[in-house]
Amino acid sequence: MTVYAIAQLKMTDRAAYDRYQARFFDVFRKYNGRLLAADEQPRVLEGEWPFDKLVMMSFPDEAAFLAFSNSPDYEDISRDRKAGAHATVLLVRGFAPTG
């Protein structure tokens, strides 16, 4: 079942985050993920949103996401992401209608 990874980021060190971002696709493309959105100015329609960026990705299944997020390559670049931004990351199962 398709899963979606949603990251909400609050920048703390833009230079560190930019280093992460520059290396992200070299790692990401190895794991069958699709980048669906990366927006630094999403339009808030309701409530409050105290973040600076939203990123949404899809993966064929949870195993593919975990292979990506736990890979040595991603762990290496994620040091800069963690230094550059506080993140809330959600993993959401896709909807599969029944009946």
From TrEMBL:
Q: Which residues form the DUF1330 domain?
A: 2-95
Q: Which Gene3D superfamilies match?
A: 3.30.70.100
Top-level lineage group: Bacteria
Please give the SUPFAM superfamilies that the UniProt record associates with this protein. Answer: Dimeric alpha+beta barrel
Give the protein's recorded name. Answer: Uncharacterized protein (DUF1330 family)
> What is the species of this protein?
Bradyrhizobium japonicum
